[in-house]
Amino acid sequence: MNGGTQTDLRYxxxxxxxxxxxxxxxxxxxxxxTLLVNDGVIVGRGVTAPGGRPHAETGAIAxxxxxxxxxxxxxxxxxCAHHGRTPPCANALVTAGVSRVVIAASDPxxxxxxxxxxxxxxxxxxxxxxxxxxxxVEGLSGYLTRSLKKRPEVILKLAISADGMIGxxxxxxxxxxxxxxxxxVHIMRAQSDAIMVGTGTVEADDPELTCRLAGLEKRSxxxxxxxxxxxxxxxxxxxxxxxxxxxxxxxxxxxxAGKRAALEAAGCRILSCEEHFGTVALPELLDDLxxxxxxxxxxEGGAETARNVLEEGLVDRIVLFTxxxxxxxxxxxxxxxxxxxxxxxxxxxxxxxxxxLRRDYVKA
Length: 364
What we know:
This protein is of the alpha/beta class. The chain has helices at residues 6-19, 56-64, 89-96, 115-122, 133-149, 179-190, 199-205, 237-240, 257-265, 282-291, 303-311, and strands spanning 33-38, 41-47, 72-77, 100-105, 126-128, 153-160, 165-168, 194-198, 222-226, 247-252, 269-273, 275-276, 279-280, 296-301, 317-322, 331-333, 345-353, 356-363. The chain is built from eleven helices and 18 strands. The strands form four sheets. A nine-stranded mixed sheet has the order 11-10-9-8-14-6-15-18-17, with helices on both faces. Strands 2-1-3-4-5 form a five-stranded mixed sheet, with helices on both faces. It has a two-stranded antiparallel sheet with strand order 7-16. β10 (247-252), α9 (257-265) and β11 (269-273) form a beta-alpha-beta unit. α3 (89-96) runs parallel beside α4 (115-122). It starts with 5 loop residues before the first helix and ends with a strand.
């Protein structure tokens, strides 16, 4: 625990929960949570605001006012140490008069790494690091992946029937899991910067790929379509809703100019991608998405796209929903199942939603 107490664990767990409020909404910045605690009372709460500013520490200090003086700050990510549009958060904590700062995870950004903690210590503030770091990293994993790998964290989501299928040929969308699991998938969408599917899924299902939970509609992610030849119809549901929720189409320069013009006229953005044996080069696409500030990318279909991304070694997290339902004749086989996972993935969570089981795997 690196010097932390049971009380530190309790408040840090609360700060981590608070940080989850704005997952998928903070642009290029991570969603950080901060609590200020004075005499056993939470006097200030902060979470990175939509768009990335103001930072969590600033919000918590503003809420606490004078009660920030002498308090303990619980911060899920090392306070920033560099000057941007606003002064560093480490300096803001010093100015507010906090007496102690408890940090979960370190920031790999070279402008911050170790420097935020140093500012605090140099000001005579007690600093405790590494409290519930692994738990905090789960919510920060997109930001950390983009910082270290210069691409988004890729989360592959699959719903698998009892007979190992993810759909049925020619049947469009097939309900495999129950209502609770489907709602959880919409929460995953709301917490992601972007969602990506292949053009085959678009042609077969004509999906919207939005978050359709009441109150969370405005948290729909950017929708990205792997469509090298620009086959997606300009009258599809995705194109029709592009003016409201962004649609980016990963296409090739060799694609038909007329199709490009029609999709752009509908409000879609065309990403000109590098070509690899006639298809979109996936590693380069992910690098481009990272440069656009995309930190978390949810991959939701279909089997071919999932298989290609897995083969490229680009998947960081796998979320499997398994059901007792049977697809039967004409089923589309899943590229993996709990008994046949890619090398290097470890099971980190199991949860039950009605009659469905969710398993989360992370690349070690």
